[in-house]
Every structure is written in structure tokens, then in C-alpha cells.
Design goal:
By secondary structure, the chain is an alpha+beta fold. The chain is built from 3 helices and 6 strands. The chain folds into 2 domains: 2-95, Pseudouridine synthase I, catalytic domain, N-terminal subdomain (Alpha-Beta Plaits); 112-143, no CATH class. It has helices at residues 27-39, 72-82, 135-142; strands at 2-10, 46-47, 57-66, 87-95, 114-115, 127-128.
């Protein structure tokens, strides 16, 4: 059995988060369907973490197992052709069988973008504030 890490990004606008949900589409579900189609068997995908509905990820790591070695460049291309345009696989990488996308993660970073200006081109990626934030109070609350 060979384990693979998948490095991907997604615009979460259309999804109910990373993890499979009974009430709507998820990124994990789309990835599992695409892999299952390519490998012609059911494939379980484990993510490094979860995101809520509508949340985006510029780099998410997940893993899956394969019965046989895969051409990672070929598979990356084929996955990107099967996946919807709002999910993109950067790379597949063979790893040791014990490697785990969630438990072996060494860091996680979350970025929140806010603006006080109306910005039509990236409005779904920023929260618009109608007043200037009180940074002193925010820092105090963060402590």
C-alpha cells in the first residue's frame, strides 16, 4: 500500500466546508469522487483539518492510499481535469505509509482579511467593515 499526500487549494464559496456533510457539497466529497473515478475504486481522503462553510484554503494537505504506485504528475493533471474549477490540486507526493495529513502537520496558519473600502473584485475574500477597527481593543481582547 502506498500513501500519497495531496496539496490543494479551493474557493469554499460553494461548499459546506472541507468535511463531507449530509446537507450539502464538500471539498472532501469532490476530491474523493474524482480519485475514485480515476482509480476505479472507492477512495477515502483524510484532510489536515476542517474548514467551515464558505471558507477558502490556499494550501490544504490531505492523504489517501493506493494499492499500486501512481504517476503523480499524470494524476495531478487528471484530477485537475475532473475537479470543479474552484478546486485545484498543486501536487501529489508519495510518503511513508505511516504519514498522516492531520497528525503530522507541523503548522497551521489562518488569515482573515478585512477592508474598509468597497472592493468589487475580491469581495468574497474579505470582510468589509464600515468603521475603522479599534486595534487597541482588538489586541487587548486577543490577549
Amino acid at each position: 500500500m502506498q500513501r500519497y499526500f495531496i496539496y490543494l487549494a479551493y474557493d469554499g464559496t460553494a461548499y459546506h466546508g472541507w468535511q463531507i456533510q449530509p446537507n450539502g457539497a464538500s471539498v472532501q466529497e469532490c476530491l474523493m469522487k474524482a480519485l475514485s473515478t480515476l482509480l476505479r475504486r472507492e477512495v477515502e481522503v483524510v484532510g489536515a483539518g476542517r474548514t467551515d462553510a464558505g471558507v477558502h484554503a490556499s494550501l490544504m494537505v490531505a492523504h489517501f492510499d493506493s494499492d499500486s504506485p501512481l504517476d503523480t504528475v499524470f494524476m495531478t493533471d487528471k484530477l485537475n481535469r475532473l475537479l470543479p474549477p474552484d478546486i485545484s490540486v498543486y501536487r501529489l507526493r508519495a510518503v511513508i505509509p505511516e504519514a498522516h495529513a492531520r497528525f503530522d502537520a507541523t503548522a497551521r496558519m489562518y488569515k482573515y482579511y478585512v477592508t474598509t473600502a468597497k472592493m468589487p473584485f475580491n469581495r468574497q475574500y474579505r470582510c468589509r467593515l464600515f468603521q475603522t477597527p479599534d486595534f487597541e481593543r482588538m489586541n487587548e481582547a486577543a490577549r
